[in-house]
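Listing S7. Sequence submitted for prediction.
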Amino acid sequence: MITAHNLTKDFDGFLALDNISFSFEDGEIFGIIGHNGAGKTTLLKIISGLITPTSGELFVNDIDVVKDPLSLKQNLGYLPEESRLYETMTAENYLAFFGEIYGLSQQEIKVRSSQLFAALSLEPDGKKIGEFSKGMKRKAAIARSLIHNPGFLVYDEATSGLDPMTSRFIADYLRRLRQDKKTIVLSAHNLYQVEAICDKVMILRRGKVVAFGTMKELRDQFGSLTYTIFFSIDDPAKLVGHSRTYRQEEGFFVCEAEDMKDLNECTATITEAGGRVEKIESRYPSLEEMLLKIGK
């Protein structure tokens, strides 16, 4: 279990984190989101043992990260927002370099590198990393974070700036890592991906936790189920005079309902005007809508 108690980080009068507390289980993907300046990267660096909080406690299983960050790093894979790579090296030599730092044998490095290249669909072919595309560089950085087979991963914007295909591939790869019992903490601006792959999500605003929980718990907090009604009508003029707003979409007229009572009133209005309900779609508020409600 990963547990934080009252984490605070003060940078010479600027309170980047203000009394943060949370916990989540091993083998989960934990997402941290918020507007720019909310404190996401600061929190990730504290979780990684890269910077020390001004006050508070953080435990990764039995490791006190504040007092003993070195013990954490032996089982940590960290991916910064920017893929800072040794671009004059080949990917093979790059992984070998870090494998040696972690005390792996040459045979272990060879096996792990081959496994990671295959899993990430990365074909380095002896090229220098500086010749890679941005997506290939990101995959090389991910491979570096996994060369020593850590159980705890901290990824800052793993898919930032990548094309949709590569971004989706990496998101799917993170799911596979969870199946391998890896514990993953990540931040991302791609809120759709966070929503799709994270077991729990924390929303930060100006260094404070404003929401934390599963997607179901967040949806319950920020709004209930809403409904979109698609309908057809021969004479749209019959809807004039009703207070409800309608629009056209996918060849149908569309209206929104905020709850079941509103849904019943909307469908009754459509029927009375001679229209026919074609389909009804239900939806919960998205993470993007939650962030908009929270504001900066």
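Caption to Listing S7: primary sequence and predicted structure tokens for the chain studied. Residues 31 and 194 are 6 Å apart (CA to CA). The domain at 223-295 is CATH 3.30.70 (Alpha-Beta Plaits).
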